[in-house]
């Protein structure tokens, strides 16, 4: 095996390139992690972070480039197992523990201590070894507790222990704090720092820049599949990171991004709306034909707000009025009143995968399709053809099963269900996640055209250019509150991201003074 | 031809025709009016039950209490008519309403308390059997009157046994409800993706409650027909029938995981099993060998119906 010269470096990626049949996801990426450092990887959605992680952990193969770990060159293709054995551990966002088993059983799953010369598990030894490990790191856990009884934060600790039990020298954490409370997150940070003292390297991925700022020894910034910059400890500042993440995009030159003044009647008015633990004191007005963008980090309360407005979840206090009347949301009432929802996860929440396109469109429109309880086949087919035509769904076969369509066409189908109706207001949550650029543009066109027809739109998105391009006005949520509203001004991705990250805008203050 | 065969009911009908052709060649006694009538007659009970049991199945649940409830219904209708002296028509209506309420109760536990249907209806199977034992004093009761009640099961119209008409009515009504009404669309929606259905304005709990009630009511009808046909009722009269009903539904293309199914398909499935048993009888194959053959046929039907489709879907989901 070849040897690398730099003994300080634990992981080194050289000239990594990756494309998924066509679009380039990673382009000549150089990336390294030193021994015992906390290294953050940041970038917008789609910058290539997850692909890079997948390549390092063996979940995906690279097209070209070298990876060195512990001064050993890794093969072009390797499995997750291979990476794990080398000492690369991942703490997954969706935790991979088995609920019905104890902490000890999970940590040593398939590696249980056995009685000599038997295949029988030595339970005493299993629990004792696990407890030793727990005590070594002073985690607030007991090895014999069932996973079911643990909080999400505690489960993460178990995942970390599992990694440590396998002598991991690199622990990768992908958005570990997205479902933790402030206090739990603080505890996790303490543990991450302790890992560093033990000489273990941590690769930390988070959208929450204040965490990146507080924790990291170094930060690598990815943009459009390229490494833009590697910042040392003293160079790290949230403001600088945002500037690097966004870069100079074409969008700054487009006219559309100066938010126009909105006219028209108020369709929806929300006053001091609060749902405890989800969002607090939300107030805004939505005008006829307006596209109201809602930005913010994942977990800032955006999706929760939309769910309350559509009537899926209850709220605790505040008022909602719709078309001038007090509005008590319920899904049925929303549909009848012309309020639609494009949910966040189309596969889990949007489509009936085992049903035809016709049935998928039909089920939202049973009031038209079956006004007296009996389905009028002709009306149903007509509606299906209309939806297919309006959104250019491919294949244009109304009998195709929804589950067999591509992601973009599934999303169009979810939109079609509503576009064949008389709409007043549509709530759209992350409309273009994981769909190709062509379908994306088509969906943007439909959102704009809805607005031109006088339909009001609330658009929740983590895709910043999407927000700046489509919105008439943008609200930014942070920790469940509206932290900023952008209207009648020039808007950029950077401004939204700064607000979402809680950075005060000197620039805007200057703007106000100049006015 | 290819397009027609892609619809599972037609595919089944096609297989059934081939099977009939084979049986006709094998035995001259097969294609006779009396033999065919007998075979159809033998699946009446299963047909009636499956016209209701398909609803819980499509919502992704199951009703395993069919056998106990059918027997209990027979015992109840006898109790009302012959021990309490209630008019036979009213007795039948009472019994069907009770069947629906028992289904509603199971549905309530499944929908509102979120206990798996398998467990809920398994328990129902046992306690309904117990109630049936108590009401019948653990004995076998003969029903000899009233005459019009006995005629339901034993009479003939146009030279065909009455139960065939009742079954056809139930199957057609159920197929209509499932395929042509808003309710049927909602049942399919709930079984296919409950969350998506909910966001489209469907109330999954309500759909479940109604589904289990329908299953209970149809089972009561089946129990009444069986009682009238056999002129005797006892707690174990229909024990194990739920498995035959589930078999028929599965062969008929009703998805084990919900969201897809056909009542007519279920009936064709039941007829297919009956034809196979009939063929074995005509060929003088000893009875102990029958389950081996029927079991293999069920497995084959499952592989044809489910195999390619659902495996593909699963593998995509795990990616």
Task: Describe how the helices and strands are arranged.
The complex is a heterodimer of chains A (515) and B (319).
Chain A: E1 9-19, E2 24-34, E3 38-42, H1 49-57, E4 64-69, E5 72-73, H2 80-86, E6 88-91, H3 103-107, H4 123-136, H5 152-165, E7 170-174, H6 182-197, E8 201-205, H7 209-215, E9 218-223, E10 226-232, H8 238-246, E11 266-275, E12 279-287, E13 291-296, H9 302-310, E14 317-322, E15 325-326, H10 331-337, E16 339-342, H11 346-350, H12 357-364, H13 366-369, H14 377-391, H15 407-419, E17 425-429, H16 437-452, E18 456-460, H17 464-470, E19 473-478, E20 481-487, H18 493-500, H19 506-514
Parallel strand pairs in A: 3-8, 3-9, 6-7, 7-8, 13-18, 13-19, 16-17, 17-18
Antiparallel strand pairs in A: 1-2, 1-4, 4-5, 9-10, 11-12, 11-14, 14-15, 19-20
Helix pairs in contact in A: 8-18, 12-14, 12-15, 14-15, 15-16, 17-18
Chain B: H1 2-6, H2 8-26, H3 33-42, H4 44-58, H5 66-83, H6 88-112, H7 117-135, E1 141-142, H8 147-154, E2 156-157, E3 160-161, H9 162-180, H10 182-192, H11 194-199, H12 204-230, E4 232-233, H13 241-251, H14 263-282, H15 290-318
Antiparallel strand pairs in B: 1-4, 2-3
Helix pairs in contact in B: 2-14, 4-9, 4-12, 4-13, 4-14, 5-6, 5-7, 5-12, 6-7, 6-12, 8-12, 9-10, 10-12, 13-14, 14-15
List keywords for this structure.
heterodimer; A: 515 residues; alpha/beta; Rossmann fold; 3 domains; 6-stranded mixed β-sheet; 19 helices; B: 319 residues; mainly alpha; ABC transporter involved in vitamin B12 uptake, BtuC; two-stranded antiparallel sheet; two-stranded antiparallel ribbon; 15 helices; 76% helix
Summarize it:
The complex is a heterodimer of chains A (515) and B (319). With 515 residues, chain A is of the alpha/beta class.
CATH classification class of the largest domain in chain A: Alpha Beta
The main β sheet of chain B shows up as:
2 strands, antiparallel
Number of strands of chain B: 4
Secondary-structure element pattern of chain B, one letter each: HHHHHHHEHEEHHHHEHHH
* Uncertain ranges of chain A: 250-256
Protein chain pair with the most extensive contact, residues per chain: A-B, 28 and 25 residues
Number of helices of chain B: 15
Helix content of chain A: 25-40%
Radius of gyration of chain B: 20 Å
Strand order of the largest sheet of chain B: 1-4
Q: Could you tell me the number of beta strands of chain A?
A: 20
- Count, helices of chain A: 19
Oligomer: heterodimer
How far do the termini of chain A sit from each other?
Answer: 66 Å
| Strand coverage percent of chain B | under 5%
Our Rg estimate of chain A from Cα atoms comes to: 25 Å
Percent of residues in helices of chain B comes to over 70%
Q: Spell out the CATH superfamily of the largest domain in chain A.
A: P-loop containing nucleotide triphosphate hydrolases
Q: Strand order across the biggest sheet of chain A? A: 6-7-8-3-9-10
């Amino acid at each position: 095996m070849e040897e690398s010269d730099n003994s300080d470096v634990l992981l080194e990626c050289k000239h990594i390139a990756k494309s998924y049949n066509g679009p380039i996801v990673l382009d000549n990426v150089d990336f390294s992690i030193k021994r015992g450092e906390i290294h953050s990887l940041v970038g917008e959605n789609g910058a290539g972070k997850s692909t890079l992680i997948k390549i390092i952990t063996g979940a995906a193969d690279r097209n070209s480039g070298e990876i060195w770990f512990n001064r050993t060159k890794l093969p072009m293709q390797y499995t997750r197992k291979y990476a794990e054995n080398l000492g690369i551990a991942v703490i997954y966002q969706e935790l991979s523990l088995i609920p019905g088993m104890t902490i000890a059983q999970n940590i040593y799953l398939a590696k249980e201590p056995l009685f000599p010369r038997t295949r029988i598990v030595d339970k005493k030894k299993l629990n004792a070894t696990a407890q030793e490990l727990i005590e070594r790191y002073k985690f607030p856990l007991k090895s014999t507790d069932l996973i079911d009884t643990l909080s999400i934060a505690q489960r993460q600790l178990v995942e970390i222990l599992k990694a440590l039990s396998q002598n991991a020298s690199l622990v990768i954490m992908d958005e570990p704090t997205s479902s933790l409370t402030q206090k739990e997150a603080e505890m996790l940070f303490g543990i991450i720092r302790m890992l560093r003292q033990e000489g273990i390297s941590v690769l930390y991925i988070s959208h929450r820049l204040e965490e990146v700022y507080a924790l990291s020894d170094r930060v690598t910034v990815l943009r459009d599949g390229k490494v833009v910059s590697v910042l040392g400890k003293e160079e790290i500042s949230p403001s600088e990171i945002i500037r690097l993440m966004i870069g100079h995009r074409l969008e700054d030159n487009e006219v559309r991004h100066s938010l126009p003044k909105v006219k028209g009647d108020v369709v929806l008015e929300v006053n001091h709306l609060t749902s405890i633990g989800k969002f607090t004191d939300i107030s805004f007005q939505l005008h006829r034909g307006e596209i109201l963008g809602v930005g913010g980090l994942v977990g800032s309360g955006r999706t929760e707000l939309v769910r309350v407005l559509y009537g899926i979840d209850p709220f605790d206090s505040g008022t909602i009025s719709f078309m001038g009347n007090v509005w008590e949301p319920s899904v049925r009432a929303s549909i009848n009143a012309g309020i639609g929802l494009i949910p966040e996860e189309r596969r889990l929440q949007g489509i009936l995968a085992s049903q035809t396109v016709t049935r998928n469109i039909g089920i939202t429109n049973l009031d038209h399709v079956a006004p007296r309880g009996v389905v009028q086949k002709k009306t149903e087919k007509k509606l299906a053809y209309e939806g297919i035509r309006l959104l250019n769904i491919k294949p244009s076969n109304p009998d195709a099963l929804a589950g067999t369509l591509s992601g973009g066409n599934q999303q169009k189908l979810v939109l079609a269900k509503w576009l064949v109706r008389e709409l007043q207001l549509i709530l759209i949550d992350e409309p273009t996640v994981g769909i190709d650029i062509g379908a994306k543009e088509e969906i943007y066109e439909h959102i704009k055209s809805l607005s031109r027809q006088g339909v009001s739109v609330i658009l929740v998105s983590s895709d910043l250019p999407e927000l700046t391009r489509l919105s008439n006005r943008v609200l930014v949520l942070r920790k469940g509150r509206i932290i900023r509203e952008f209207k009648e001004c020039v808007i950029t991705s950077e401004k939204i991201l700064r607000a979402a990250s809680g950075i005060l805008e000197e620039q805007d203050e200057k703007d106000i003074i100049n006015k | 031809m290819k397009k027609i065969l892609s619809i599972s009911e037609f595919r089944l009908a096609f297989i059934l025709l081939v099977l009939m052709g084979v049986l006709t060649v094998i035995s001259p006694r097969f294609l006779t009016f009396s033999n065919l009538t007998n075979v159809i007659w033998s699946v009446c009970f299963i047909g009636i039950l499956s016209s209701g049991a398909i609803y819980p199945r499509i919502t992704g649940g199951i009703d395993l209490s069919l056998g106990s409830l059918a027997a209990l219904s027979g015992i109840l209708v006898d109790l009302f008519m012959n021990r309490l002296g209630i008019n036979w028509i009213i007795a039948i209506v009472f019994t069907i309403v009770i069947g629906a309420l028992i289904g509603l109760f199971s549905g309530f536990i499944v929908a509102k308390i979120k206990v798996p249907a398998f467990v809920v209806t398994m328990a129902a199977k046992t306690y309904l059997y117990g109630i049936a034992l108590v009401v019948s004093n653990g004995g076998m009761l003969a029903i000899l009157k009233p005459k019009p009640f006995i005629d339901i099961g034993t009479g003939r119209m146009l030279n065909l046994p009455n139960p065939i008409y009742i079954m056809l009515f139930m199957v057609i009504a159920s197929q209509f409800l499932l395929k042509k009404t808003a309710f049927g669309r909602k049942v399919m929606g709930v079984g296919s993706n409950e969350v998506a259905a909910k966001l489209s304005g469907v109330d999954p709990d309500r759909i479940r409650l109604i589904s289990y009630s329908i299953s209970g009511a149809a089972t009561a009808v089946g129990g009444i027909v069986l009682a009238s046909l056999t002129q005797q009722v006892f707690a174990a009269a229909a024990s194990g029938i739920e498995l035959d009903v589930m078999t028929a539904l599965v062969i008929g293309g009703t998805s084990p995981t919900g969201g897809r199914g056909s009542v007519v398909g279920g009936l064709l499935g039941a007829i297919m099993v009956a034809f196979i048993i009939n063929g074995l009888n005509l060929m003088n194959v000893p009875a102990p060998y029958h389950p081996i053959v029927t079991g293999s046929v069920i497995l084959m039907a499952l592989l044809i119906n489910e195999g390619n489709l659902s495996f593909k879907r699963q593998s995509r989901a795990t990616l």
